[in-house]
């Protein structure tokens, strides 16, 4: 009876790992799992599509392959700080984050970090959202706001001048 228990635990662990893999694959946004050293251990199809890499090209690579050059030097330190105090949080709060695609282009992104305890040790699951469309919409709103501000200034000026002339 005691011999059966380790086998059942192993089967349960494997089933749980497979369920996690299926959930990550089915997620609507990009998901990447990284170990303490920054090596990519899991990616989903959405990650392949967004960054232009195949799964095989990413697995085993350091996560910095997806970080623009100007941020790479500091990224390992940020990763180590996260692993020293792992908790669910947004990455880069208050800063603009960008991902580096295979073709060298950069995309604005938001990243949520979640610590995950795996049999191999602690991992980080990063949930990535491409915010390109949101940035475009924000830029359009800012441009329209500026146009409206200019129109209001001109209208105010054009209405005020005749009133001043009448008043004088």
Provide a descriptive summary of the structure in words.
By secondary structure, the protein is α+β, with helices and mostly antiparallel strands. It has 6 helices and 6 strands. Strands 1, 2, 3, 4, 5 and 6 form a 6-stranded antiparallel beta sheet that branches. It starts with a helix and ends with a helix. The model has no long low-confidence stretch (mean pLDDT 89).
Give a quick set of tags describing it.
168 residues, 6 helices, 6-stranded antiparallel beta sheet, alpha+beta, 6 strands
Offer a concise description of the structure.
The protein is α+β, with helices and mostly antiparallel strands and 168 residues long. Helix content is 50%, strand content 23%.
How is the topology of this model organized?
Elements: H1 4-26, E1 30-35, E2 40-43, H2 45-51, H3 55-58, H4 69-72, H5 75-84, E3 89-90, E4 97-100, E5 106-118, E6 121-130, H6 132-167
Antiparallel strand pairs: 1-2, 1-6, 3-5, 4-5, 5-6
Overall geometry: elongated
Task: Please compute the radius of gyration using only Cα atoms.
Answer: 25 Å
Report the average pLDDT across residues.
89
Number of helices: 6
Percent helix, as a range, is 40-55%
The biggest beta sheet reads: 6 strands, antiparallel
Q: Low-confidence stretches at least 5 residues in length (pLDDT < 50)?
A: none
Number of strands: 6
Beta content: 15-25%
Estimated structural class: alpha+beta
Span from first to last CA?
Answer: 105 Å
Helix and strand element order = HEEHHHHEEEEH
């Amino acid at each position: 009876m005691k011999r059966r228990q380790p086998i059942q635990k192993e089967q349960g662990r494997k089933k749980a790992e497979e369920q996690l893999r299926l959930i990550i694959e089915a997620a609507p946004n990009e998901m990447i799992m990284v170990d303490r050293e920054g090596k990519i251990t899991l990616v989903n199809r959405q990650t392949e599509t967004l960054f232009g890499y195949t799964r095989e090209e990413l697995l085993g690579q350091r996560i910095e392959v997806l970080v623009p050059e100007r941020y790479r030097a500091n990224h390992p330190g940020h990763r180590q700080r996260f692993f020293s105090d792992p908790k669910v949080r947004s990455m880069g709060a208050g800063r603009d984050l960008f991902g580096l695609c295979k073709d060298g282009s950069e995309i604005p992104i938001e990243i949520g970090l979640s610590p995950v305890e795996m049999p191999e040790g602690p991992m980080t699951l990063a949930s990535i959202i491409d915010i390109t469309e949101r940035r475009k919409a924000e830029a359009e709103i800012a441009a329209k706001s500026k146009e409206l501000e200019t129109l209001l200034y001109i209208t105010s000026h054009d209405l005020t001048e005749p009133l001043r002339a009448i008043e004088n």
